[in-house]
Design a protein that fits this description.
Shape: elongated
Number of domains: 2
CATH class of the largest domain: Mainly Beta
Number of strands: 12
Strand order of the largest sheet: 1-2-3-4-5
Helix content: 25-40%
Organism: Bradyrhizobium campsiandrae
Strand content: 25-35%
Keywords: Membrane, Transmembrane, Transmembrane helix
CATH topology of the largest domain: PH-domain like
CATH superfamily of the largest domain: Pleckstrin-homology domain (PH domain)/Phosphotyrosine-binding domain (PTB)
Largest sheet: 5 strands, antiparallel
Radius of gyration: 21 Å
Protein name: Bll5862 protein
Order of helices and strands: EEEEEEEEEEHEHHE
Length: 194
């Protein structure tokens, strides 16, 4: 959800993080980032935002979901998601609204002279753990494949190869997009925006 006021001075975005909760609402104003989450509200000046982390976070109901974690210098953190719950079985993407809001947030932070830490993907330790798990899984799958080949279980070979291809297709995009890196205000990571 996105709306511009008559003067183009504010940009808003809202999403429902859960089916029964209230909408999380955000607005970019001349003063800063205004947010309303549940019963809490706040206004963070653009130069008081200490960090922004962009990531790709698919879930079972929505395989194309992005997330922005925005941190404040005094310790608060808010998450902005690119999807919104519609019904018990439907999570709707809000790609254009999310993209426009995040790009505008970065532009306003840059204009305010922000010195925020801009990172993309997972944290370095989490990413290393994911890679280690995938390496162990690859070794196990290779062992199963070799055993199936040696025993002549060609149906098993086909199953393992099919499963490996599906797994690589599903997990490969997540791993590729969430590689830890830094970025700057004028070059946002395209793979982490819808």
């Amino acid at each position: 959800m996105q709306a511009l006021d008559g003067q183009g001075a504010s940009l808003s975005y809202a999403y429902k993080a859960s089916l029964i909760g209230s909408a999380h609402r955000f607005e970019l104003t001349d003063e800063g980032l205004s947010w309303h989450i549940g019963g809490r509200t706040g206004l963070w000046r653009y130069d008081e935002i200490s960090a922004v982390r962009l990531s790709f976070r698919p879930v079972s109901m929505q395989q194309h979901r992005f997330r922005a974690d925005v941190s404040h210098t005094k310790g608060g953190r808010i998450a902005i998601l690119s999807t919104s719950w519609q019904t018990a079985a439907l999570m709707a993407p809000q790609d254009n609204g999310f993209r426009d809001f995040i790009v505008a947030l970065h532009a306003r932070m840059a204009k305010a002279g922000s010195r925020a830490e801009l990172t993309a993907g997972l944290g370095a330790r989490t990413y290393a753990a994911v890679l280690a798990f995938l390496a162990l899984l690859a070794v196990a799958m290779a062992g199963l494949l070799m055993r199936a080949l040696m025993t002549g279980e060609f149906a098993g070979v086909l199953f393992i190869l099919g499963f490996a291809a599906l797994f690589a297709w599903q997990v490969g995009g997540f791993v590729r997009r969430n590689q830890p890196r830094r970025y700057n205000f004028d070059r946002l990571p395209a793979g982490l925006l819808p």
